[in-house]
Amino acid sequence: MVLNLHQCCCCDSSLKKTGITHRLFDVLRKWEAHGVVFSQDTWLDYPNNTDLTLYQCQNCGFGVFLPMMIGTEAFYTDISRNEYYLPERWDFQVAIKALSSHKARSVLDVGCGSGAFLNLITQKLPDVICHGNDANPAIRNTLPPQVNLHLNLSDAPTNLDAVTLFQVVEHVADPIELLQESIAKVRPGGLVIVSVPDHSGPIRFFADSHTAIPPHHVSIWTPKSLELFLNKFGLSILDRKTEPLPDYLMPFYLPKILANKLGASGDLSREEMLSRRLSTPIVNLCSKLGIKSLPIHGHTYLIVSQKS
């Protein structure tokens, strides 16, 4: 299988051009408005102010921005200086439980970044042999000494008990190739754990956020599209998880969620009133009581699957 930019890689339906378009330079300036300073190398990587248009599947919700414009090494070096990745994440905790219950003894984290998940494994499951894959050699300094780093995914060992891909597929130009290579590293019966930002959830209210569009995210995913995608590779779905709304996102997501539920989406005066009278008091109460999440649709969707 190879990625067809005119056909959905999840359900084979046609991708339809939407009315959603972003100017590349406008997106980069949004990053700068949030404190990122782009180097000359990054600007040289993106010499043209390209229009990036979303093409989407009407059946499963998968979407891809075209022309394909992925984040370069310089881009990710620049945005990573602001530490926008969370060291403790819900999908990490779900994966740790899955690895433990299936008695995994070896794991490969694809796109491991600074190694937060691998650090967590060394603490929670110290007997597990850890491998990380990331193209950035500088992360060697952030990994525990017992973690084996592979700059190229092809160099990672095979016959592993599990492979994890935490919010990686939306960053790459060819998710099919990435998943094929990742599955090849797992023994029969091993686990393939994948998480994505869930665009059927409250993320959809922030679809023009600089973190949700190229060159950071080049594709969008829903629970349906991810499950169909994994099924194409003969993987058996063992578990599905939707992240509850975490405390750090409550101030941003809860006002939009409540406005949508109460039929006030798009009415700025009603949204502001609901925020002041309803969502802000809820957020403040959760903070006072130490409530870390609410049992409503949050940011991330995760599937635990098994290689046949």
Structure in words:
This protein is α/β, with parallel strands linked by helices and 308 residues long. Helices cover 31% and strands 26% of the residues. Among the domains are: 126 residues, Rossmann fold (3-Layer(aba) Sandwich), CATH 3.40.50; 48 residues, no CATH class. It is built from nine helices and eleven strands. The strands form two sheets. It has a seven-stranded mixed beta sheet, sandwiched between helices. The radius of gyration is 20 Å and the shape is globular. The mean pLDDT is 94.
Quick description:
The chain has 308 residues and is α/β, with parallel strands linked by helices. It has nine helices and eleven strands.
Fraction of residues in H or I helices? 25-40%
> What is the annotated CATH architecture of the domain at 90-196 and 233-242 and 299-307?
3-Layer(aba) Sandwich
**Termini gap:** 18 Å
At the first level of CATH, the class of the domain at 90-196 and 233-242 and 299-307 is: Alpha Beta
- Round the Cα radius of gyration to an integer and report it: 20 Å
Count of β-strands: 11
Treating each run of at least 4 consecutive H or I residues as one helix, how many helices?
Answer: 9
Structural class: alpha/beta
Strand order of the largest sheet: 6-5-4-7-8-11-10
What order do the helices and strands follow?
EHHEEHHEHEEEHEEHEHHE
Major beta sheet summary: 7 strands, mixed
Give me the CATH superfamily of the domain at 90-196 and 233-242 and 299-307. Answer: Vaccinia Virus protein VP39
Q: What is the typical, i.e. mean, pLDDT?
A: 94
Shape: globular
Q: How is the CATH topology of the domain at 90-196 and 233-242 and 299-307 named?
A: Rossmann fold
Low-confidence stretches: none
Strand content: 25-35%
